[in-house]
Backbone:
């Protein structure tokens, strides 16, 4: 299921590509997405300590924010994190996919919600089914607390619009 809408929100497209997203806000979206991914990354690393692809993707995203790697390099690392998710149990799989989505934010800013959504799914998948809703809510609240003020309204509005294609993880 795609996490990107068919029609792109111009607020999540950089100015140089015809949207209204500034480079500063693009970096803030990337940073927040990476925080979301890092918050659950241990679920993958505990299961696959010898596989650094999701961590490498997060590191590439951080390096992009600092201007040390190109967008294409971060995007390639995103594909590697996604590949690491294959065949993993849900908590590890969703954590790796969160890292992949976060590393893809330099390419398409709207991947920020993918990182957040997969992190929420990872949090819900690592507890007994009876506790999953509470774990997802706790992760969603953690993410909201860590949202930078400059992009808070944009992200919360986008969550409302895209929750249906993000498995409804942003619904209260």
Residues:
């Amino acid at each position: 299921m795609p996490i990107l809408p068919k029609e792109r929100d111009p607020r999540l497209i950089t100015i140089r590509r015809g949207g209204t997203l500034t480079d500063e806000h693009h970096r803030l979206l990337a940073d927040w997405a990476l925080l979301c991914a890092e918050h659950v990354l241990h679920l993958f690393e505990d299961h696959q300590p010898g596989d650094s692809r999701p961590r490498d993707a997060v590191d590439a995203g951080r390096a992009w924010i600092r201007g040390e790697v190109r967008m294409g390099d971060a995007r390639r690392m995103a594909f590697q994190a996604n590949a690491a998710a294959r065949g993993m149990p849900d908590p590890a799989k969703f954590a790796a996919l969160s890292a992949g989505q976060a590393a893809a934010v330099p390419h398409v800013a709207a991947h920020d919600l993918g990182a957040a959504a997969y992190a929420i799914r990872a949090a819900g998948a690592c507890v007994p089914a009876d506790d999953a809703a509470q774990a997802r809510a706790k992760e969603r609240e953690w993410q909201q607390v860590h949202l930078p003020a400059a992009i808070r309204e944009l992200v919360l509005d986008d969550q409302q619009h895209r929750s249906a294609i993000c498995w409804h993880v942003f619904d209260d």
